Amino acid sequence: MVKKSSRPSPGLVTSEDSLPPVRILVSWSPNSAGTEAIDFAAWIARTTPTQIRVVSTISQPLTVTSLSKLSGSYKKWFKKERAACEEAVRDALSAAGVHKSQWDKDVSVLVAGPSRPQLLEEMAQEFDAHVILLGANQSAPKGRFFSGSTADALLHYSPLPVGLSPRSIKLSKHGVTRINFAFTDRGADDDPALLRAAYMAHRTGLPLRVLAFSPEGLIDVPLDYSPTFPSDAPNWREYSLSLLDRAHDFIADAFPDLEVTTAIGNGNGWSGAVDSLKWKKGDLLCLGSAPMGPFARVFIGSTATELLPHVGVPVLVCPTGPGPES
């Protein structure tokens, strides 16, 4: 069952677009081996209005005292580094096709400290960012994502959605053309992350595809569902179809005009399950995260952790929170 959207077809963002900008904090440095994080931001900027700020970090051990930072030589060196960094950031954004109207006034910020994840979280809070975008670990195979130390840390405590990009992927010149949501650990049809993905699709006038993965049935099920689960493949498929049907109805009630489709990825292991589905250059995959205490923070579960290395499209991991617009 597909519900058609009454919104205009997606296309390039124009100056007439009245949507409030998405505030994007990009983690990228001139010495980065790739530009995936910049390209990710540019891809989003072709879809919806954005305000982009790029944060570059310098690793500085705790032994560097605040007193040494006050010295004239340090200030002179840092000022020179900041100017060079800003020039590189501006060049990278221009090369990626991001119009200057979508740059933040302080488009480049250089910060130093012992913890890169902590610096990014602090800068995101200062910028009032909606999302933090990370580049690819260059040790990953082309078209795949490996989680480095910074990504791993943010995926376990970031209060904001974290965007991840596979290495050296080709993205649609038309921006994001479809929002995808995949059930992982929680498997609840009213998952707040599903509602967030639906809101993003509604905001941009894009279709939403809701997915279930894994022939091994890693989606949560009631303990009394089946003593043979997940080896009972027909029952697993029946359960997954039921979950997707409930999710479809849940989204249809919240966003009646949204075009919603569902699909099941079934194959040999995670790679086979992911590859069994058709993916486009304009696909963005959204994943939820497990609850962690009373605060809304990303805490990626084991299933999503296993899934990520096999995904060949940009991913947005969302924290468990009260609502999609928060």
Question: Could you characterize what this model shows?
Answer:
The chain has 326 residues and is of the alpha/beta class. The protein has two domains: 22-164, HUPs (Rossmann fold, 3-Layer(aba) Sandwich); 178-317, Rossmann fold (3-Layer(aba) Sandwich). The chain contains nine helices and ten strands. It has helices at residues 36-45, 66-69, 72-95, 116-127, 149-154, 192-204, 233-254, 269-275, 302-307; strands at residues 22-27, 50-59, 103-113, 131-134, 162-164, 178-183, 208-213, 260-265, 283-287, 315-317. A ten-stranded mixed beta sheet has the order 3-2-1-4-5-10-9-6-7-8, with helices on both faces. The model is unreliable at 1-16, 217-231 and 291-298 (pLDDT under 50). InterPro entries: UspA. This is Universal stress protein. Pfam families: Usp (PF00582). Belongs to the universal stress protein A family. It comes from Corynebacterium minutissimum.
Tell me the overall shape: elongated
Query: From the structure provided, what is the oligomeric state, counting identical versus distinct chains?
Result: single chain
- Low-pLDDT sequence parts: 1-16, 217-231, 291-298
CATH topology of the largest domain: Rossmann fold
Q: Strand-and-helix sequence, N→C?
A: EHEHHEHEHEEHEHEHEHE
> CATH H-level name of the largest domain... which superfamily?
HUPs
Q: Give the % helix.
A: 25-40%
Mean pLDDT: 83
**Strand runs, count:** 10
How much of the sequence lies in strands comes to 15-25%
Tell me the strand order in the biggest sheet: 3-2-1-4-5-10-9-6-7-8
- What summary fits the major beta sheet? 10 strands, mixed
Q: What's the CATH class of the largest domain, please?
A: Alpha Beta
Helices, by number, come to: 9
Based on CA atoms alone, the radius of gyration comes out at 21 Å
Going by helix content, strand content and strand pairing, the class is alpha/beta
Distance between the termini: 30 Å
| Overall domain count | 2
Please name the CATH architecture of the largest domain: 3-Layer(aba) Sandwich
Organism: Corynebacterium minutissimum
Pfam families: Usp
Protein name: Universal stress protein
Family: Belongs to the universal stress protein A family.
